[in-house]
Amino acid sequence: MRVALDATPLLGQRSGIGNYVRGLVDGLAALPEGPEVLLTLFSVRGAVPGPLPARTRPAPRRAPARLLRQAWRRVDWPPTELLTGRVDAFHGTNFVLPPLARAGGVVTVHDLAYLRYAETVTGDALEYTQLVPRALRRGATVLTVTEAIAEEVRAEYGLPADRVTVAHHGMDPTWSTALPASPAVRDRLGLPERYVLFTGNLEPRKNLGTLVRAHAAARRQDPEVPPLVLVGPAGWGDRWQGSPPDPRDVVLAGYLADDDLRSVVAGAAAVCMPSHYEGFGLPVLEALAAGRPVLASDIAAHREIAGGQALLVSPGDADAWSAALLRLPEDGPAEQARRRAHAARFTWAASAQAHLAAYRRAAAD
């Protein structure tokens, strides 16, 4: 079987969707019955980062997304197979399924933020209100990364249950062996010895204003509460929902490379994820894989992914977040082992198997 994937999320600073595509590619390559995979770039800049695993190679041609979108807004031409050559299925990994001539179509809908929190999305995401229904009209098999989002997608678009497949993200095994950042690394990154941590885009849906206010209130009550470190790209919009954080209490560490990120997570007193809404919540699972305590918003995706291994807090209750920061979860060897064991259940091999089943279904349809 030959499958093409939209690999554009692998370019540049890798986001959560970029990590998803990378993990999926590795998972498919590890399957004994895995398909031949063509990585398609809707861009003329950059290159797929290597080395590539077995049975995986770049698609033979590429084109700029801007020109393709202009054409696709008017007509379903050119078909994507002009870039990929003959394939049995094409997987739109990031909400969008381009026109296809003969291949079966698969699209991953990571969340419905473009509908549920439309005021928090920008750029390409603003077009998902039209692009996702267009993919469904083309008959796409839908992948979601949690059952929570699968239920939303089925209800929102009136899809039968068997048209939506759930494929949880996997975990890179290096998270389970991550060690806390050394003093030299902390100095290089400007981090204190002890800290609580947020990782992700600094954007409104992440609810950082509540976390920052709750953290400041906890520090006023007890100065021993660790400083807050925020790791991730600057994002967009009114991410603070009010006054910006006090630099005496909050460190803005910016985007970190993978090795630094793992060590910073492994050294955190706790990882905090206060999001109003998530499709999966990968930082929650990464923190659990590293054995760290997690404070997460009490939303459907976090309940599903954390599996009882995180302290769940109402996203809008700053007082509850302050109380949680004042009394962090237990962090002994037994607790760390339980967190790691839970995260180890999420593998890219299992995710790739679910994806492969969706590819075969789409190709048969």
Write a structural description.
The chain has helices spanning 16-30, 65-74, 81-84, 113-116, 128-137, 147-157, 183-189, 208-221, 258-266, 282-289, 300-306, 318-326, 333-343, 348-364, and strands at residues 2-6, 36-40, 56-58, 89-92, 104-108, 141-144, 164-166, 196-199, 228-231, 250-254, 270-273, 294-297, 311-313. It has 365 residues and is α/β, with parallel strands linked by helices. The strands form 2 sheets. A 7-stranded parallel sheet has the order 3-2-1-4-5-6-7, sandwiched between helices. Strand 1 (2-6), helix 1 and strand 2 (36-40) form a beta-alpha-beta unit. The mean pLDDT is 94.
Q: Which short descriptors sum up this protein?
A:
Rossmann fold; alpha/beta; 7-stranded parallel beta sheet; 14 helices; 365 residues; 6-stranded parallel beta sheet; 2 domains; globular; 37% helix; 13 strands
